[in-house]
Amino acid sequence: HSFCLVCQGPPVWHKNYPVAQGNRQSPIDIIPHQTSHDPGLGPITLNYDQCTSINITNNGHSVVVEFEDPDDRSVILGGPLDNPYRLKQFHFHWGGKGCHGSEHTVSGNSYASELHLVHWNAVKYKTFGEAATAPDGLAVLGIFLETGDDHRWLHMITDALYMVKFKGSVTDFKAFNPKCLLPSSLHYWTYLGSLTTPPLHESVIWIVLKEPIIVSEKQLGKFRMLLFTGEEEDERIRMENNFRPPQPLKGRKVRSSN
Ligand SMILES: CC(C)NC[C@H](O)COc1ccc(S(N)(=O)=O)cc1
Ligand SMILES: [Zn+2]
Question: Is 112 helix (H, G, I), strand (E, B) or coil?
């Protein structure tokens, strides 16, 4: 079964996607004391105030909230970025009950889950698809999720998950501003990497926030009621452990904002 990360997952992706064994694959294990502090790295800015989410969908790999991106209404800028990058979608990766599910790890430790806010360089490229194949085409902001108290805004997402239980389902999800999912500090690590699922394009400038957000086990559990399988399939496989393990650093530098 294609979704099973054991039989058809990361270990065999290189057969159809040889770039899986490339020199700038993601995620990676971030070792903080081995990162280089770069005083030239400024802060990142998220201009999400004119945010226009459209829908929420189960694409068989994750749950994705998509945005209208006809102009620079919602952009990330600064930090390692030479241009503003437009918000296209955000999605999550998570584990099974009680076990961890982040993609990036920190000194070998993984978090319960990881949120990815996916942006594309609309200054240099005409479409997301074109940007997704260019070395400076995408900027993904990674935010770790740690279990603890309820997150006061995450319920807006988890309350909608029952509507997109099956692979291929989509439902309206308007006017959600992901700024409410940010931690208090925007300090980050940054490095050059890739998409963490096929086609694994080496087109991502990764910006991983150091501070996790706190969500409850109950909220996280609602992600695990999603299914990898479609409504018409008789097998019902829970969507969990949809994360790629860390990949070789291959000599890359990880920089730290401060
Ligand atoms: C190549 C384009 C057109 N299609 C890409 C496809 O939608 C997958 O897009 C993505 C987008 C983001 C990521 S992650 N986990 O690295 O943030 C993975 C795959
Ligand atoms: Zn992702």
Answer: coil
